[in-house]
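Milestone M4 deliverable, item 7.
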Amino acid sequence: MNSEPNLPPEKELPDNRFANRGGVSPFIIFLILILLVMAGGLMFAILEVNRQNADHNLAPLVSANQRMETSIAQLMQPTPTFLPDPVTIVHDVRSLARLETIQYTLEKVVTAQSNQGELAFLFGEKLIFVAHGKVIAGIDMAKLRPEDVRVSGGVLYVNLPPAEVFVATLDNEKSYIYNRDTGILKRADPNLETQARQVAERELLKSAQEDGILDQAQRNGESYLSRLFLSMGFKDVIFNDAATPTAPKATPSVTPMPSATP
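Output delivered:
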């Protein structure tokens, strides 16, 4: 009788179905991440909606605040409005034959003041006006008469009219009030600035005259006309002495400061 050999009992293999019970499944981690992303997106959407609602609700307040700031700025620094009349009146039209031969560009400082006594801090007024302007001089060829020109032996003799000032005016874009002080009980006088401008124009003209603008204008005119006449075939051009150059008289009433530069 064959007896089976005694074999050792087989070891049972462990069940691996629950081997990862102690850890976290990757699938669960993936689900958690998706939920977190969705929750973040939902939170962002809610915050964005709330922000838009807040902006919409605050829009009237913001607009009112901006209007108030604009009104305050206009009160503190008002911007003047200019409304020119559409009608323009032409008083005079003249034909000109002026030969401009020189221009001066000058600067002048004029101090205008009133009521500068012991009570100046109450009723006084003072302004410093910086004037920029130009003075143009030349020869008015319309004053040249037929008898002022003659030819002898191919030489041209010319009696030119004396040089004169054509323009003496301020440059309003560059001229300005540097400083203005008004007394506590004094209202600003608009005529004071007007008078300062008028004096500045006269002083610019006076400075140009003192620097010899008329003599230079006469010489420049003769030089230009001499080249012109010689190009026309004359052997020589001789200018007789012109009368003393003339210019408008100046009588300043406000004390200026010496600062003219040609």
